[in-house]
Specification:
Helices cover about 55% and strands about 10% of the residues. It contains 15 helices and ten strands. α5 (about 110-120) crosses α7 and α9 packs across α15 (about 315-345).
Length: about 350
């Protein structure tokens, strides 16, 4: 009988369902919707390796000789994996799936339950006792409706014989979240996930407000940016002056400059400088600095250029954005793998 290598098993009454292999998968369109926002995604290099591995496992299954079909269904990890992928395909076809997944994950109690059932099978009563260890007292109905049902609705958990365990997909996401579990405290629990959208886009580099308005609705862009700044996930340049002064190509020797004008002119760097920094370096008051800059501008020795404010990730923001990107990549990898399994069923 074909088997997939498993991680170290816990005690027999709690067998793990986490398969050691990762199963990369990428959405064929290259984009997954998050509410009304589309996020460009990265292609995975090992997608072809997965397809090849699934074909190899299919070949081994054909040569397998179980004593009964029931034994194959109950014990074959390959069968269980493919069955999971078929169910996930139906779940992930929801155009708002990414948004719903992120909102399910942004709950401390759900994450605690998910981490528990990744390592074994639990009944609702056992989960109730597990939560009591962390100081949470919930009824079994609350655990079922508020925590287990949402986890199952996005394909992170499944139930068999009144026991719950994480899917392979749920195990992979849990491992990814483990890198930065604090993320649930930094993002709104129930949202359209515009914060998540913006954080991932900022991984490619700073963005101006005009660029951000293309990614998220302009009416709420300021509020989203304020929220991300308050949690120290994004930052703006410390320099508050966004008008910079540059030297023109005009020869200053042809002009009669006072000693102060000459001092200010020579202090202007080739890459430009703000009035505030110029006043600081020349030790001239801001009022007089602006006065002499106006004079230099009138002589066409200086010109100004506005540099728009840009928003960038902090170190903490970059960590969170990487985790979010990792979660989305796993989703896309799983979607693509499920497509392969479904196509095989159609062709067989």
């Amino acid at each position: 009988m074909t088997r997939v290598m498993m991680r170290d098993q816990p005690p027999n009454n709690h067998p793990t369902q986490t398969i050691a292999h990762s199963y990369p998968i990428g959405h064929t369109s290259g984009r997954i919707k998050m509410g009304n926002v589309q996020i460009p995604t990265q292609k995975t290099e090992n997608k072809r390796d997965l397809v090849g591995m699934l074909k190899t496992l299919d070949s081994e299954c054909r040569n397998c000789a179980p004593t009964s079909p029931l034994q194959c269904i109950n014990r074959c990890q390959v069968y269980q994996l493919k069955n999971e992928l078929r169910k996930l395909r139906e779940t992930m076809d929801n155009p708002n799936y990414i948004k719903e997944l992120f909102n399910v994950l942004k709950n401390e109690t759900r994450l605690h339950i998910l981490q528990a059932i990744v390592n074994g099978r639990y009944s609702v009563s056992q989960l109730q006792q597990e939560l009591k260890k962390t100081g949470h007292s919930h009824s079994q109905d609350t655990i079922s409706e508020e925590y287990l049902r949402p986890l199952m609705s996005v394909g992170l958990a499944t139930e068999a014989r009144d026991e719950y365990h994480a899917t392979t997909f749920g195990g992979r996401l849990t491992e990814c979240i483990g890198v930065f579990p604090e993320f649930i405290e930094m993002l709104p629990a129930h949202s359209e996930c515009y914060e998540e959208t913006l954080l991932q886009c900022l991984l490619s580099g700073p963005k101006t407000f005009e660029e951000i308005e293309i990614l998220i609705p302009p009416k709420i862009a300021s509020r989203i940016l304020k929220r991300l700044r308050s949690t120290n996930l994004i930052e703006t340049p410390t320099e508050r002056d966004y008008i910079f002064f540059f030297k023109s190509k005009r020869d200053s020797a042809k002009e009669n400059l006072s000693s102060t004008e000459q001092k200010i002119y020579e202090t202007i760097a080739n890459e430009g400088i703000s009035a505030g920094k110029l006043a600081k370096e020349t030790k001239i008051s801001m009022r007089r600095t602006y006065k002499y800059l106006r004079g230099l501008k009138g002589k066409k020795l200086v010109f100004i250029r506005k540099t728009p404010k840009a928003y960038a990730l902090t170190c903490k923001g970059a960590m969170l954005a990487s985790v979010l990107q990792g979660l989305q990549q796993i989703v896309e990898e799983t979607w693509s793998s499920s497509q392969h399994v479904v196509n095989d069923n159609v062709n067989s």
